[in-house]
UniProtKB/TrEMBL annotation:
Protein name: Olfactory receptor
Gene that specifies this protein: LOC101700011
Protein family per UniProt: Belongs to the G-protein coupled receptor 1 family.
Domain G-protein coupled receptors family 1 profile: residue ranges: 42-291
Membrane topology, record value: Multi-pass membrane protein
Compartments reported by the entry: Cell membrane
Organism: Heterocephalus glaber
Length: 317
């Protein structure tokens, strides 16, 4: 393409749901606002309760706190701008704002992939080596595992975002999405992006497949260990300790795979928007609900924390 067709953009326009009637957009605003608030409150509550209750000062809940923090971070990066767009029809986002949104969406997404694998390893050690669990999963080891889970997000987000935004863009600045994701922004580039696309595909496969294989390996060994337990009660107790995590992993990877690994012919921009909503907005809300309602220890901790707060308030009055 001739250099005269290149342009230096100062802002982008997020098309998101602009094709829908105003009434539908207002309805979506209310729905997404409720989901957003439930996500923030649910995950914040998990963080506070697991910090406040001594009974939850274990590796499993240390990892859960980090997962809740990542879910909050991903929502804060994407949802507020989407809500403002739906309510005020302000669809513009600055060049720097778009790059920042893309960077942190990559960072939190990649970190979550590896953290879910770390949580699977934690369940594997707890079920397959219960006597050695306190030694193997001490505070220092857990801190290292969390750091190792967060770290891949930095190079992936830095390389992919800086590389993409170093390309020249065409005259159009309309991003056909509700946030600055890589594929819709890449369509605006006026340059040969073959090398970048190869890097993006290989990077996405590695980021998704490496944690996925670690999770499958952990749960294969967990299943084998559970089948060796003689009593049905023992099997149920062992499975219940990892059922919440298994459900969260399934929701995350199914929605992520449907979004990024479907063929272009079967994955229209509108379908991709709906699928992106599932892993960026709906799944973080469901995660907090799953870990709150399906986990007896968290429910009991919530009850204890509530009664302590109520008793303290009564004493003050």
């Amino acid at each position: 393409m001739a250099a005269g067709n290149w342009t230096r953009l100062s802002e982008f326009i997020l098309m998101s749901f602009t094709s829908l009637p105003t009434e539908i957009q207002l309805l979506l605003f209310l729905v997404f606002l409720i989901i957003y608030l439930v996500t923030l409150m649910g995950n914040s509550l998990i963080i506070l309760v697991t910090l406040a209750d001594p009974m939850l000062h274990s590796p499993m809940y240390f990892f859960l706190r980090n997962l809740s923090f990542l879910e909050i971070g991903l929502n804060l990066v994407i949802v507020p701008k989407m809500l403002r767009t739906l309510l005020s029809q302000d669809t513009t986002i600055s060049f720097l704002g778009c790059a920042t949104q893309m960077y942190f969406s990559f960072f939190f997404g990649v970190a979550e992939c590896f953290l879910l694998a770390t949580m699977a390893y934690d369940r594997y050690v707890a079920i397959c080596s219960p006597l050695h669990y306190p030694v193997l999963m001490n505070q220092r080891t857990c801190t290292k595992l969390v750091a190792a889970s967060w770290f891949p997000g930095f190079p992936v987000a830095t390389v992919q975002t800086t590389w993409l935004f170093s390309f020249p863009f065409c005259a159009t600045n309309k991003v056909n999405h509700f946030f600055c994701d890589s594929p819709p922004v890449l369509r605006l580039v006026c340059a040969d992006t073959a090398r970048f696309e190869i890097y993006a595909i290989v990077g996405t496969i590695l980021v998704v497949m490496i944690p996925c294989l670690l999770i499958l390996s952990s749960y294969t060994r967990i299943a084998a260990a559970i089948l060796k337990i003689p009593s049905a009660k023992g099997k149920h107790k062992a499975f219940s300790t990892c059922s919440s995590h298994l459900l969260v992993v399934s929701l995350f990877y199914i929605s992520l795979s449907l979004t990024y690994f479907r063929s272009k012919s079967s994955n229209s921009p509108e379908n991709k928007k709906l699928l992106s909503l599932s892993y960026t907005i709906v799944t973080p809300m469901l995660n907090s609900i799953i870990y709150s309602l399906r986990n007896n220890e968290v429910k009991n901790a919530l009850s204890r924390t509530f009664h302590k707060a109520l008793a303290l308030r009564i004493c003050i009055l």
